[in-house]
Amino acid sequence: MTHAAPLSPRKTPRQSRSRASYEAVLTAAAQILERDGIAGLNTNAVAERAGVSVGTLYQYFPGKEAIAAELVRRIKAQLLDDLTGALVAAQGRSLREAAQIVLSASIRHHARAPELSRELERIEEDLPLDDEVAAITDKVHAGLIGLLAEHALPAPEVVARDLTAMSRGMVHAALFAGETDLAQIERRLLPAILGYLGLDPRG
Amino acid sequence: MTHAAPLSPRKTPRQSRSRASYEAVLTAAAQILERDGIAGLNTNAVAERAGVSVGTLYQYFPGKEAIAAELVRRIKAQLLDDLTGALVAAQGRSLREAAQIVLSASIRHHARAPELSRELERIEEDLPLDDEVAAITDKVHAGLIGLLAEHALPAPEVVARDLTAMSRGMVHAALFAGETDLAQIERRLLPAILGYLGLDPRG
Amino acid sequence: MTHAAPLSPRKTPRQSRSRASYEAVLTAAAQILERDGIAGLNTNAVAERAGVSVGTLYQYFPGKEAIAAELVRRIKAQLLDDLTGALVAAQGRSLREAAQIVLSASIRHHARAPELSRELERIEEDLPLDDEVAAITDKVHAGLIGLLAEHALPAPEVVARDLTAMSRGMVHAALFAGETDLAQIERRLLPAILGYLGLDPRG
Amino acid sequence: MTHAAPLSPRKTPRQSRSRASYEAVLTAAAQILERDGIAGLNTNAVAERAGVSVGTLYQYFPGKEAIAAELVRRIKAQLLDDLTGALVAAQGRSLREAAQIVLSASIRHHARAPELSRELERIEEDLPLDDEVAAITDKVHAGLIGLLAEHALPAPEVVARDLTAMSRGMVHAALFAGETDLAQIERRLLPAILGYLGLDPRG
DNA sequence: AATGAATGAGGCTTCATTCAT
DNA sequence: GATGAATGAAGCCTCATTCAT
Fold first, then answer.
1. Taking the domain B68-196, which CATH number applies?
2. Residue C63 carries which DSSP code?
3. Residues 6+ apart with CB under 8 A from B180
4. Å from D58 (CA) to F18 (C1')?
5. Model pTM above 0.90
6. Which chain A residue's Cα is nearest to B162?
7. Are B165 and A169 an interchain contact pair (Cβ–Cβ within 8 Å)?
């Protein structure tokens, strides 16, 4: 009975009271996701924690998927934000320096809320892939690809995907294992990236 | 109120009739997991696909978690198997060669059933972590750590974790994106690993 | 693995709509209990007879035990009510008169719905014994004990228990056998009680 | 689907091995009944505890009810046994003495396995009432009635029922409350019975 | 006779979603 | 707009009973 459920919010309210409810729902969902993973995410629980009735929740979201989708959208947007600065800063630098700058930004992004971001990445992998998210992802990729192309790397799409996946994998594993020193993680990951890029890892 | 659900099978039957049912359940579960992910894994579906009644399923497993746990156990055991050969072959080789051998084995392992192995890895991350699985994981790690220690690498546990996570991440992403040429993937991943290890990636 | 099931209602609604459902569930449960005993008490049957969905039932009660517990609570409260009047009336009377007054009230209490009250007494014996019920039971006992102490009887707790149990047993048996003349029953039981109390049964 | 299940054993085996299984089932059932009450009585559990397969259980009993019924039959037969001696001893004695003798036997009967006997009494009340049990019960009653008639008591059937019920009620309550001194219980109950019979309780 | 694997009806409970107020 | 009571499909699990070996 999977009815290709709609993933976009029903209305994005502008009035303050509505706005508050809308945000409350998202915040509650994020907290639950962080604490209990996707298994714990159910509309009744979200509404309750948001201090809002289920009815209201459904006023703004056509279903639970849509809530998750909106969270994905936001975290992706934030990633774009986080990376954009780095990409600008990386412009004109050597590939080695550029890699370091972007990596650093990326790690900081994931470290903000590791559990939540891991959960949202999982959801993103499973979800039918929303247009808007795709658009953001494309922008992120485009930035990365641009940077890579600047340094005349072949198949920059593949490179972007590889580096993203490698980094995600390692960073999540490290954070999951209890590490907190981001610089440490970065110091270990950078040589791998440099190696991938064919640069001498011993800077 | 997460009731620390029991994860071990109820009985591991040796008689042919039972054995067949037991295996049918596991096979069905693996197929469902592969097709629909953990969300689709429910006792009724598994029983039906296994051509067995729910009652029979419960005869052997105290619940769906236990089925998943057994699958995790098996895939880990297989990984151990797959790696053991590689680790033996790697003995006495240079770090560079050793890395290549192990990586190759690891990729082949994941490529057998990418969706399933990804799903099982997720499950493993979420599960309370079963003693038996922990034991197998330890053996895998011990093998890796031994190899790394042979080459006088510091903090081999961290290195093992980092490399495992990086590789998993990238390999899954590549397979997910539709790549099928394992050699290709290996050729991209190896330099990253060499870089991580501080070796010159351009062999 | 008896999970100390929760016995208190989830919410005791005050709004008319909810209130009606809540009461409907209790009424239905009482009827079923009366007709089929505890074996027939299952959530589906209760919900159906109450003209309510299972979901609604679970909105108010965490499980069938909780429904039974609430019925026990109510009948005990009613017993307390019924006896309180009698105890007041018995004050200052002779022990013989007092016994007769209390007995009479007690019989009338049981005769209201003999099947139901017998079933609820059984349940009460089996249940983990709820705080609230314990409190009511204590009050009932306290009343009885007070009365007995007034007449300088030793070990009034034991006496209260003995008389209660004897009466229950005989009254239920008589009603079960089809007797309907309460006065008859009372006339037979009273001498036993007087005898127990060491008074001359031939008043 | 209550098919008026048959209550008599399928066959009462005479061969030693069969006999042993048959008895093992009954013993197991009694133990479970004693420990967990009727709720815990299920055929699989009984068979397992009896060290016998379910198939074998069904060889001898057409269903779980039949097992319970047989236990009821036996305990009733035992009661008859226990009382018969007392009734003989009571013959020719004064009513007061006779009452004391029978009461004493009755208390001893219940005290052998209070939990079990209470559980079986409940079952008996609920069961469709088996012919054989009815026959035994009649004999018990007849004995009692004979004794009562000997002393020219009117409506001896009612008296028998009343006294039985009163005694049961009080004895079970006392045992349930943890009392172990049977003589104590008897000393309290006797005057009630004497009172009931219109005799001076202060012997 | 005995075994025990298999069955499936039936009972329990949750949670996404609707809708009257 | 908001509420929250109500719904019921869907998943979980047990246990009485059958039947092939």
1. 1.10.357.10
2. S
3. none
4. 10
5. no
6. A170
7. yes
